[in-house]
Structure of Nitroreductase family deazaflavin-dependent oxidoreductase:
Amino acid sequence: MVLPKRVARFNRVATNQVLRHIAGWAPGFAMVVHKGRKSGREFRTPVNVFRTPDGFVVALTYGPDADWVKNVLAAGSCTLVVRGKEIRVHGAEVVHDESRQAMPVPIRQILGLLHVHDFLRLKRN
């Protein structure tokens, strides 16, 4: 059960407007800076992000069909604003992982309750 589209719409209109002010510097959050695949316009999407040995991983709570995910995959790269620093990442790939191994233990449990099994892996340049 990935989060429903109506939750995504609410978050885009309400929650993301608040998060965009803190996501670039708050622990556990990042701002994904990406370009629209059709418009070429720059977008900024707040996400929960977790470090991995070679980069970062993002739980795809709305699934791999979210527009921002499609934009990052089409470009193959994006910029993350993490704790106030811009980090260019590449090698974007969606990974299906039923065990959620890349996530911290408490997050694994929460994502398990939400039936989230898809993640976006990003490598540091």
User: Anything to note?
Assistant: The helical segments are 5-19, 67-75, 105-113.
